[in-house]
């Protein structure tokens, strides 16, 4: 096929869809089965579905509680912990819901000590779950005390000594030294601090407050944040295209500004890809949550090697506030949602999804993982069978995402060292749970052309 006057997919990728969806996907999580759990917003927060990518079929998973504005991340056994929920605007709930991806059933966990609306959930190296932030019962009334959930006891423990007022949806990351880093929030710029769980202490990392509407840990301990954070109830202002990186593996880490995005964005999402690059989708040139006429349709890609953003193909639907995006096991990216600002069935609601195929899917044959373990312990080697061993230049684990409000609370990229073997590769598993908190990951092998395999689901335990 000839491409006249347009760049070919091997350079800018290709979009498919839009596909009709039964809900506005405000929250999405990739399950260990390869299916996607999604739920809606406002009074539609009871509406949840499981979507099966190969068949494009939906199964209703309606939940008793209104889980709109929750925080979510996966437990080591693959269940999704969903913390908090919605009573009305700025009023949260202390509920804990657990979704089993294998039986497709909901169960109720122990309630939190504090109600939370827009909290963040982070899987810790010991398999417990940290919840931070979230509003209680009014605009700006933040739940300042973090809590930790133990799957073994089904109980929450309050970290009273670690009280900190952080705007809603904190951007949190487990560092290679085991601390949890707070780089930014969905609502407003903040100083960067690290939390030491055992001592319940916060340490200042960088007192400067460069903004970031979303953030991602693109390599262990290395953070990228971009664009503009916003309280959508406040006055509309212009978005920024700025980008900053922070290297927590350095002795004196500090934010460094890098080349800006090609488009100023608020309400955008960043997705980690198997080749190690970062995809940017969604968002708009101002903080207007519903001005779909000016939404940014063109995606872009950030390269950690060059620290530059490149323009990609454009999607069709305008996706602003409450839009979502996450990586699928086949290396494509699911993009959905947008809408449900102050109600349901608004003109700006996007009852659809689109699927993006990155350029690497048009750049040669895909390598094949013929066999790989379904579970591995830490700090050991394992065998991976592939006929493409001589062409493989990188191997990585990517944790399935759990995304809402421009931030993926659970995605993670973990590069692995490897050597060629007689029938494939010998791969070193992560050396510690600080690098890869326990749970399910997608194992990818990538060729010298940057082409990834289909991800093989593996439990690191």
Describe the fold and architecture:
- 54% of the residues are buried.
- It contains 1 helix and 40 strands.
- Helix content is 1%, strand content 41%.
- The longest helix has 4 residues, at 9-12.
- The N and C termini lie far apart (46 Å).
- It has 2 domains: 13-361, 7 Propeller (Methylamine Dehydrogenase, Chain H); 365-460, Immunoglobulin-like (Sandwich).
- The protein has 461 residues and is mostly beta strands.
CATH class of the largest domain: Mainly Beta
CATH architecture label of the largest domain: 7 Propeller
Structural class: mainly beta
In terms of DSSP E residues, the strand content is 35-45%
**Strand line-up of the largest beta sheet:** 5-4-3-2-34-35
Ends distance: 46 Å
CATH superfamily of the largest domain: Galactose oxidase/kelch, beta-propeller
């Amino acid at each position: 096929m000839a491409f006249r006057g347009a760049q070919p997919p091997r350079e800018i990728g290709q979009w498919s869809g839009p596909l009709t969806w039964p809900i506005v996907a405000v929250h999405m999580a990739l399950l260990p089965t390869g299916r996607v759990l999604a739920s809606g917003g406002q009074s539609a927060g009871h509406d949840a579905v499981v979507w099966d990518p190969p068949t494009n079929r939906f199964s209703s998973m309606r939940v008793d509680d209104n889980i709109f504005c929750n925080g979510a991340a996966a437990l080591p056994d693959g269940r999704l912990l969903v913390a908090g929920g919605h009573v009305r605007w700025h009023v949260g709930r202390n509920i804990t819901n657990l979704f089993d991806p294998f039986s497709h059933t909901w169960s109720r966990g122990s309630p939190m000590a504090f109600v939370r609306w827009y909290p963040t959930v982070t899987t810790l190296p010991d398999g417990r779950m940290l919840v931070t932030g979230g509003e209680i019962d009014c605009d700006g009334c933040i739940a300042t005390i973090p809590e930790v959930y133990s799957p073994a006891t089904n109980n929450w423990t309050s970290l009273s000594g670690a009280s900190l007022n952080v705007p809603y949806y904190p951007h949190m990351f487990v560092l290679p030294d085991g601390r949890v880093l707070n780089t930014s929030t969905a609502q407003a710029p903040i100083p960067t601090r690290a939390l030491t769980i055992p001592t319940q202490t916060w340490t200042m990392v960088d007192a400067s407050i460069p903004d970031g509407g979303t953030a991602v840990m693109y390599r262990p301990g290395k953070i990228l944040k971009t664009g503009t954070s916003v309280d959508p109830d406040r006055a509309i202002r212009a978005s920024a295209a700025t980008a900053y990186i922070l290297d927590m593996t350095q002795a004196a880490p500090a934010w460094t500004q890098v080349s800006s995005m090609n488009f100023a964005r608020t309400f955008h999402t960043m997705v980690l890809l198997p080749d190690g690059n970062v995809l940017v989708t969604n968002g708009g040139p101002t903080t207007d949550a519903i001005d779909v006429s000016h939404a940014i349709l063109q995606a872009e890609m950030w390269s950690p090697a060059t620290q530059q953003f490149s323009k990609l193909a454009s999607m069709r639907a305008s996706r602003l506030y409450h839009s979502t995006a996450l990586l699928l096991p086949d290396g494509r990216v699911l993009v959905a949602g947008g809408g449900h600002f102050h109600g349901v069935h608004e003109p700006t609601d996007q009852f659809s999804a689109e699927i993006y195929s990155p350029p690497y899917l048009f750049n040669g044959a895909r390598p094949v993982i013929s066999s790989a373990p379904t579970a591995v312990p830490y700090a050991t080697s394992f065998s991976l069978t592939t006929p493409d061993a001589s062409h493989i230049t990188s191997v990585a684990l990517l944790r399935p995402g759990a995304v809402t409000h421009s931030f993926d609370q659970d995605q993670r990229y973990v590069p692995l060292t490897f050597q060629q073997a007689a029938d494939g590769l010998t791969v070193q598993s992560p050396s510690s749970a600080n690098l890869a908190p326990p749970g399910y990951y997608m194992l990818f092998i990538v060729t010298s052309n940057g082409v990834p395999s289909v991800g093989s689901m593996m439990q690191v335990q």
